[in-house]
Specification:
The protein has 674 residues and is of the alpha+beta class. The protein has 5 domains: 271 residues, Rossmann fold; 76 residues, Translation factors (Elongation Factor Tu (Ef-tu), domain 3, Beta Barrel); 69 residues, 2-Layer Sandwich (Alpha-Beta Plaits); 113 residues, Ribosomal Protein S5, domain 2 (2-Layer Sandwich), CATH 3.30.230.10; 93 residues, Alpha-Beta Plaits, CATH 3.30.70.240. It has 17 helices and 33 strands. A 7-stranded mixed β-sheet has the order 2-3-1-4-5-11-6, sandwiched between helices. A hairpin with a 7-residue loop joins β12 and β13. α13 packs across α14. The N and C termini lie far apart (77 Å). The structure holds guanosine-5'-diphosphate and magnesium ion (MG). The site of magnesium ion has 7 residues, from α1.
């Protein structure tokens, strides 16, 4: 067994929401003796998910950092949120881990939920194994599960254990396992290490066959082993374990283990696999392209009592308070260092290779950046952030605090952003899903005391005209001394969609003096800010063709007013109609949900553009459609509800389309003051 002077191993727990990652982190801490009692997510006593939002949701909203020692080795655990709305939080941390454990549910028909995690790890090149959790509830066999999972993995899945079953009161239960590497059997003991037992006689044949299959899988990447198998020789145990470790590290195989986090079943076996199979941190450093050591920042947090913290993984040298390190944005002075155990932090004199630490202040350095090293930021394939809410403070005097708070929240969450829509006077918060923004607003209130009202963002309706119209606009005012006089005749014509606005003039004989023509254009534009239906006017051409003036009373202002009057009247006469923004939507969905996705789109006045299989994914499809912006509200939630939370979409503005009939009447009516 190599010594571990080569550093702390960072293990990422990934996989679908609700499979038991946070529970597994707790089970690891308990098995390693880092906590006295195994906390529970359900009882709100787990080390992870300590934030008010995660407790309220009953599931992770942010990544959880813990650490433990096991058999003389140090492990840092990054437990990541699994649900689509929060998964972006763990992405950089996963990229910087030595090994990921994909936690899956034992039910084969839920296996598909694991595909995003498996594909993400493949894309990042992070070695990984699968832990089938909740084995206490398993109804089917591990073989069926592996069959369902295999198409989602580029590398072969290698079963490391086979289950031992026994008839119990509630039916057949898995009561232990045979380890195919050790060729030894163990019986689960709740909350304690498993007990060694003899391999049950009725499993002997299966054990031999499955072990041979495992060896064959390993022999695909080990010629010597292949020869031994062909010669009917028995390879020694050390060779088998060395192959398992090497092939896991090189992403040639994905070992599969099972157990139960809640009951502590199979947890020590998993820890031994982590110990053997997780590569030393320099492998991750090389993968991330880090040339010289120091630290990779994977998350910024403002959530704790310590103010701004940069969570980082140390890859070389030692990191200590006061060290000055180069970053993308200049020299950064390392503030106080902390170790992290859930919500608890403890001061740390210095951090060693592989450690996961929190660095106080470290102003200027953000998630995905290097400190003191020239590495590259891994490129992440995150779900699109196209769920938006228009927010406004309940109390105007919170406005300044709102923008400071939003700045902090966005800094710690790569999938959150906000923008100010000047035209519509709206502050828009954008995130991945309704749930994501709901949690964000809860944080805004709890941490920063800012309460906001939130509503769906205003849809960018526009209007245009159908008929050409020629119209006079006259402004005349006599009030004591100087009067005001402007008089114009304009021709207003519809333009093809997307052409915007054109202004021209055909003035002969100075009917409107040159210097007033720009004022007429300005007046026309004034009228277009809000057309007869109440929306900005687009796609019209205006030509100034005639007019008259007064030597004393005419002015720029008077002509601007005349232009505005003329245009307002013209638009009213020109058969105005409504235009609504239509987006091009790309939905990514598991294939079993495609028909429900397309009917969701159809019921939202969507127009299908096409369907295709998702390149590189086993049973996923891409659906493209045009959907009016007004119908995107709630699409996200509907997609999730028909796809076990997996379908996501991206949308971008495509074009403006005419909207008529009752729908248009409704839009116009809703704009009218009550
Ligand atoms: N039956 C059973 N339930 C479990 C097990 N591990 C976790 N759970 C439950 O599964 C649910 C989700 O667990 P959690 O750790 O929050 O999952 P995460 O979303 O992957 O972090 C909770 O209700 C846990 O109590 C297990 O081994 N067996
Ligand atoms: Mg969790």
């Amino acid at each position: 067994m190599p010594g571990r002077s080569d550093g702390t191993r960072a293990i990422a727990l990934v996989g679908p929401g609700g499979t038991g990652k946070t529970s597994l982190a707790e089970a690891l801490l308990f098995a390693a003796g880092a906590v006295d009692r195994q906390g529970s997510v359900d009882a709100g006593t787990s080390t992870g998910d300590s934030s008010a939002e995660a407790r309220a949701r009953g599931g992770s909203t942010e990544l959880n950092l813990t650490a433990f020692d096991f058999m003389g080795d140090r492990f840092a655990v990054v437990d990541t949120p699994g649900s689509v709305g929060f998964c972006a939080d763990g992405a950089f941390a996963i990229a910087a881990a030595d090994l990921a454990v994909v936690v899956v549910d034992p039910e084969p028909d839920r296996a598909i939920l694991a595909e995003p995690a498996l594909r993400q790890l493949e894309a990042l090149g992070v070695p990984h194994l699968i832990f089938v959790n909740k084995i206490d509830q398993a109804r089917g066999g591990i073989r069926d599960l592996l069959e369902a999972l295999q198409p989602m993995s580029a590398s072969p899945l290698v079963a490391r254990q086979i289950p031992i079953r026994a008839k119990e009161a509630g039916g057949e239960k898995i009561t232990g396992f045979v380890d195919l590497g050790l060729e030894r059997a163990f019986r689960y003991v709740p909350g304690k290490p498993s007990e060694p037992i003899d391999i049950p006689a009725d499993l002997a044949d299966r054990e031999a066959a499955d072990r041979f299959h495992m060896l064959e899988q390993l022999a695909d990447h080990d010629d010597q082993l292949l020869e031994q198998l062909l010669m009917d020789e028995t390879p020694d145990r050390a060779t088998v374990f060395a192959d398992l470790a090497r092939e896991t590290r090189e992403n040639l195989v994905v070992p599969v283990l099972f157990g139960s986090a809640q009951n502590g079943f199979g947890v020590r076996r998993l820890m031994k696999a982590l110990r053997h199979d997780a590569p030393p941190p320099d492998a991750a450093a090389t993968r991330l392209g880090a040339k010289t050591g120091c630290a990779f920042v994977f998350k910024i947090s403002h959530g704790g009592t310590m103010g701004r913290l940069a969570f980082a993984r140390v890859f070389g040298g030692t990191l200590a308070e006061g060290t000055e390190l180069k970053s993308e944005s200049g020299t950064v002075r390392v503030g106080t260092l902390f170790s992290v155990q859930g919500e608890k932090t403890a001061k740390l004199a210095k951090a060693g290779v592989g450690d996961v630490v929190a660095i106080a202040k470290a102003e200027g350095v953000g998630a995905g950046q290097w400190l003191g090293a020239s590495g590259k930021a891994p490129s992440l394939d995150l779900p699109a952030s196209n769920y938006a809410l228009a927010i406004a403070t309940q109390d105007r005097k919170d406005d300044v605090r709102l923008s400071t708070a939003l700045h902090k929240l966005c800094e710690e969450d790569p999938s959150l952003s906000w923008e100010q829509d000047e035209a519509l006077h709206e502050t828009r918060l954008k995130g991945i899903s309704d749930e994501h923004l709901k949690v964000t607003l809860a944080k805004l209130k709890r941490r920063y005391g800012v309460a906001v009202n939130a509503k769906p963002p205003t849809i960018g309706f526009k209007e245009s005209i159908r008929k050409p119209v020629t119209q006079r606009g006259r402004h005349k005012k006599q009030s004591g001394g100087h009067g005001q006089f402007g008089d114009v005749v304009i021709e207003v014509k519809p333009l093809p969609r997307g052409q915007g606005f054109q202004f021209d003039e055909r003035i002969h004989g100075g009917a409107v003096p040159r210097q007033y023509i720009p004022a007429v254009e300005a007046g026309v534009k004034d009228a277009m800010e809000k057309g007869p239906l109440g929306f900005p006017v687009v796609d019209v051409a205006v030509t100034l063709v005639d007019g008259s003036y007064h030597t004393v009373d005419s002015s720029e202002l008077a002509f601007r007013t005349a232009g505005r009057i003329g245009m307002s009247e013209a638009l009213g006469e020109a058969s105005p109609h409504l235009l609504e923004p239509v987006h091009k939507v790309r939905v990514t969905t598991p294939a079993y949900a495609t028909s429900r996705v397309t009917s969701a789109i159809a019921s939202r006045r969507g127009q299908m553009l096409g369907m295709d299989s998702r390149p590189g994914w086993s049973r996923w499809e891409l659906v493209e459609a045009l959907v009016p912006e007004a119908e995107l509200q709630g699409l996200d939630a509907e997609l999730r509800s028909v796809s076990q939370g997996l379908a996501t979409y991206e949308a971008e503005f495509d074009h403006l389309a005419e909207l008529n009939g009752t729908l248009a009447d409704k839009v116009v009516r809703e704009l009218e003051p009550a």
